[in-house]
Amino acid sequence: DLFAGDSVTLSVTAVSSSATLSYRWRRNGETIRSAGPTLTLDRVTPNDAGIYDVIVRGGASASVSRAARIRVWTPRFDAETGSPSFYSLTSQPWNWREAELEALQMGGHLVALSDRAESDWIKATFLPVLDTPRALWIGLTDEAEEGVFRWTNGEPVTFTDWMPNEPNNTNGEHFVGIANGVHWAGSVAGRWNDYALSDAAGG
User: Fold this and answer.
1) Residue 127 has pLDDT above 70, yes or no
2) Residue 115: CA atoms inside 13 Å, Cβ hemisphere, count?
3) Are 134 and 180 contacting, i.e. CB atoms less than 8 angstroms apart?
4) pTM, two decimal places
5) Within 10 A of 87 (CB to CB), how many other CB atoms are there?
6) Rounded CA gap, 152 and 140, in Å?
C-alpha cells in the first residue's frame, strides 16, 4: 500500500536463451506502456491504484507475470481535531457489492459522508482522477428497505446531496454513487444518484 505522493518500482525477472524479450505492462488488464523489465510510478495519485502485471514476450512465446495490487491512500485531516482519515479508490471498477466487499477486506466500508465539507473533498480528490467515465460508489443503500437509505458502517444519515428528481428507483436502483456528469443527459457531476447493481463504478 502507498500514500499519495509516494513512488514505487515494479520489476520482473525473465530469462531467454536466445530471443530478445519485450515487456508490456498492464493495469487492470489495460496496457499502460511498453517498457523494460521495470516500471516506475512517480508521485502516485489515487488514479494509479489497480492490479498490475506484465506480459513478457520472447520470439513466439509469451508469459504473464504474477499480479501486484497497488492501493493509494489519501489522507484528510479533521479541521477540529487534526486527526487523519484515509481514503482509497477500489482496485478496479466493481459493482456496488463487490466494491463494499473490497472495502471490508481493507478494514473499512465504502465511504459514509457526514457533511458538505467531506463530500466536497471526496469530489475534488477522486472524481478528477478517474481514468474511466464512472461514478464513485458511496456506502449508502436502500436494498434492505425501499426508500430507507442507510450507511453500511451504521452511522446515521445526517447529510445527502441528491441530484434533482433522485433517488427514483428506476429499474430497481438501490445503490448510491456520486455521478461524474457523463452517464446520461441531465446528469450533474458531483451529485448523488441511485444506481442498479449491474453498474460498474469505483469506490
Assistant:
1) yes
2) 4
3) yes
4) 0.75
5) 20
6) 6
